[in-house]
Amino acid sequence: MSTPKIVFLLLLMAGFLSCKKNKQEEPAPTPEPVKTGTLNIKVELYDSLGQRETDASDIKVSLAPLTQNMVTNSEGLATFTELKYGDYFPTLQKYWYEGVPAKYSLNASSSTAVMPFAKYSQYRLMNMGGQVVNKDSVVISYHLTKPVPADKPCKLAVITNTSSVSPFDFMSVDIVTNNLQDVNKQNIAKLPGVKNFLSSIKDSAVFYVDVIPVSYGTYYSNLTLKTILLGRNPSTNNNLPLRKNW
After folding, report:
1. Domains along the chain?
2. Is residue 10 helix, strand or coil?
3. Is 206 helix (H, G, I), strand (E, B) or coil?
4. What is the C-alpha to C-alpha distance for residues 23 and 26, in angstroms, rounded to an integer?
5. Which of 88, 156, 91 is closest to 122 using CA atoms?
6. Tens digits of residue pLDDT in 60-111
7. Strand positions, DSSP E, 47-124
8. CA distance 121 to 212
9. CB 68 within 8 A of CB 88
C-alpha cells in the first residue's frame, strides 16, 4: 500500500476515534425536577338544619392515594405540603356527617379546595301519600317526625324516577322548604324538575316520588359526575308510586 493511502487511513481512523470519544463524553441530559405544591382542604361545616357552623375543627381529612391523615383547625383548614402534581381524592370523617365524593388536581405551587360537610338532617319523613289529579296538580302529603322551628324551615328534596327512586338513583330533583310538621296536598306539579320529568315520560306511565329531608341540599360531584343529596336523612325511604293520567 502506498504511503499517501496509509496516511489517509490513519487520519480517517483518528477522526473516527476522536468523534466517538467526544460523543461518549457528552453529559447526560438533566432530568426535569419533580414539581410539588401545597393543597389546602377547606371544610365548610353545616349543622342538621343547614346552618353554617363556626367551629369546623377536629374533622379527619384523608387524601388518597396518600396514607397521611390530617385534622382540621377551628377554621376547617387542613394543609398537605410537598405533594407531587397530580390528582388527589379527599375524604372527610366525623360522626353523623356526610361529605362529597370529589377529585382535585394539583398543578400549582399552592391550591385550595373548598368542601361542604353536612350533618345528616334531623327530620325523618313518614306516612307519605299522593294523587295525580291532572298535569297541573300532583299532590303529596306527609308527616315529619319533629316540629319545625318557625325561623329555620326544613329543607326537602323532591325526587322522581321511572323505577324505584332513592337518594342515590333519581331522574329529577327539586329543593323546597317547609315550616309544617304535617303537610297535606302539597302540589309538586309546577316544580321545574318534576314538570320536566313528567313531560319526558309516556302517557299513563307509572312513576315514583320521594321526599328526602336534607340539611345542605344538592351538590354536583366532579368524581361521580352526578348530582347528590348532601346531608340527607338516611332513614327516609318512601318510594311512592303514582301514575301519569294524561
Report:
1. 36-119 (2.60.40.1120), 125-243 (2.60.40)
2. helix
3. strand
4. 5
5. 156
6. 999 999 988 999 999 999 999 999 999 999 999 999 999 999 999 999 999 9
7. 60-64, 69-71, 77-84, 86-93, 97-98, 104-106, 110-119
8. 9
9. no
